[in-house]
Amino acid sequence: MSTEDQRAPRSLAAALRARDDASLAALLRARPDLITPVPTDLTQLATRAGTRASVVRALERLDRFALQTAEALAVAGDPATYAELLGLMAGDTRDQAVADALPGALAALREQALVWGDEGSLRLVRTARELLAPSAQHPSPTGLGPSVREATAGMSPGRIQELVVAAGLPSTHDSVSAAGALTALFTHRRKMAALLAKAPADSVDVLKRLMWGPPYGQVTADPGARLRWLLDRGLLLPTAPGTVVLPREVALHLREGRAHRAAEPVPPTVEALATHRPQVVDATAAGQAYTALATVEELLKDWHEGGPAVLRAGGLSVRDLKRTAVALDVSEPMAAFWVELAYAAGLLASDGEAEERYAATPEYDEWLERAPADRWAQLAQAWLAATRTSGVVGGRDLKERALSALGPGLDRSAAPEVRHRVLTLLAGLPEGAAPDPEAVLARLRWERPLRGPQSRQSPQAQQGSQGSEGDDDLRSRLARWTLTEAELLGVTGRGALSAHGRALLGARSATGPATAAATARTGPTGPTGPGDKLPVPHRATAAGSSAAPLSPPEQAVATAAAARLLAPLLPEPLDHVLLQADLTAVAPGPLRRPLADVLSVLADVESKGGATVYRFTPGSVRRALDAGRSASDLHAFLAEHSRTPVPQPLAYLIDDVARRHGHLRVGAASAYVRCDDDALLNEILADKRAAALRLRRLAPTVLATQADPAALLEGLRSMGFAPAAESAEGDVLITRAHAHRTPPRTAPEPVPDGPPVPDTTLLTAAIRAIRAGDLAATAPRKPAEDAAPLAPGELPRTSSAETLATMQAAVLTGEALWIGYVNAEGTASQRVIAPVRVEGGFVTAYDHTADEVRTYPLHRITGVAELADD
Questions:
Q1: Are 31 and 49 in contact (CB under 8 A)?
Q2: d(C-alpha 336, C-alpha 251), whole Å
Q3: How far apart are CA 666 and CA 708, in angstroms?
Q4: Phi-psi region of 659 (alpha: psi -120 to 50; beta: other; left: phi over 0)
């Protein structure tokens, strides 16, 4: 290894420049915001990697131990040595688990460009240090206060000398050396222990109350003896009138060198709370999957002729959500889930008409024609990818507006990642094992400790605060909802991941995630030298690539595999029912669609479950007759599809309703009633319940009213009659349910959680462009005679004649040149080219920056310079 290779990088850009392409690809994959747009060179990449927004996003992607390592670097020296970092993380006792895991955490921070430098000069990027370092306004997550040097920066020289002398040290010549002497004393374990041994017990108690933070305390103008002893020796330092702080060095001595109360190098384990036979899990999940299909069908059948109106601000009203919940026989939160699921799958949308209402989409009709397993797979895939979250329905947004189902403001971009991660953790357990939900939540909090509404607060502040969306952070609540929704949808059964759930996730092994996490915590017991090439390429995700959602082609394959596994487990639709003498029919399982459609018109659903009970009533039979069925049709239908003889009471009911059906005729007068039996009309007029209809006789067989025909029909039916509507020509009107559909609609697009992860093609092209741009920006140039040196990034400036002459000479010699170029859009750039031909005001050259032959107009070249010989 050359001396230059061993030299530590002097900047983050230099550290990035020393990386190979695979390492740069890992950085851009972990932090995709750095590639939007593609940086021109590595200096610009380093600058972008240090911006506040990008650093905050990178810190949010760290697991707890990697974050603790970054926090320790924030309170360490700048730069810090590996030994100093190890002392802050493992303490004086050198916790072996922490020591073993630290190289992996440091490698993860290096990979994400949050840390650079070799083991002798580790540097946390400045923005991350500002975010994590302690201050009076933002206490450190470690609970440490400022250093002695920082706390004494505004103190008078005389007062500092008094502290030095009181601590038993010789006086110094200036404040800087005095602060250094106090620092040396407080960081010397033996001397510091001797000083504290002389302290009153009450004084030591004060220090112990402050040592884990917050490090600030209040004192009166005349502090007591126990505080005065500490103040006189600099063990407590004033920061403002009435406020003192425990210096960082003193706190670290009391903590035995540890920056954190408890380092967490190993993720919490997710253990099985209960274990079931895999066959039981799969059967339970399949049964729930069928129930999910039936629930979605029932929802959209209920909205068959047009669903609830769309609120002015969008979404369902509270009243309509309650009605939907009653119709589905579920709670309101569950109703919101099913409504949102149908919406995410593209089966439900608003019709866009003047009086806007919700209705099924044309996709719903196509969905009904598919096999049940394929229909379930479409729902499950939509659920996995959806960012709309039904769990927040009923809450309030930041402007205190109510969040309604199907309304705006329900997108939570972290939802797909959390769903995939929860299911991945379940896939890491043995088949049939159901985890403890609290263990799953603990694992997720370890993996993303900075996600959620309270992520910017210190641990002490978090204990007494509540986020706007509840006590738990959003990520934990998303995980709870995922466990519930997966069970409702049939992805899990009895809390364990089913076989088709594993296929849907694309899980390849039951031990993959857990093994990946365990491997991420092992590795060399110390740094390997400059660059620290540790075998932990993606440790920051804490779960390996299996935690990431699948690409669309991979998800399509996984969905098809899940449908194949689920299909044999779903019940086979039946073509028969069991008619009973109490005017009910029992469907012992799911019915085939034609049978189910006719039966839903002929009878009312009385109860659901493993078997569905239908009840025949005069109203339901009349509904079938209104739909155009005759009594003979109904008798034949029941006889064909019943495994038991048609009971006599049911046959009598059909004949009786059919005999009276259409005896009365209602038309538009505003409305009239005609009947050949004038005695029946007399009976209607004499009935007190007909008073509201305000009927009057026009002829012996005709009654008229100002009510509209629909109201007249409903009124007579409520009185026990079975009237039929007729057209203007006197023909009986057949009333069939009108299927209202929206125009073609696409499913809502998920809201991404930041820029998408670039694919291999984009990464390759981006790294190639960045390398080429960096070559142009850093290529050594020969200084021009009598010319001032150029500032970094400044384009060369030469006259047209000089540019032309230099180009022509380079064509003859074959040398490469450095040029400044301004394109047609006015964008300036630096390029390294090897001219091949100069003619007609253009230069044709091999562009090292773009790695291709290009032609440039000479008038757009700002200047040219020769490259240095080396």
A1: yes
A2: 52
A3: 10
A4: alpha
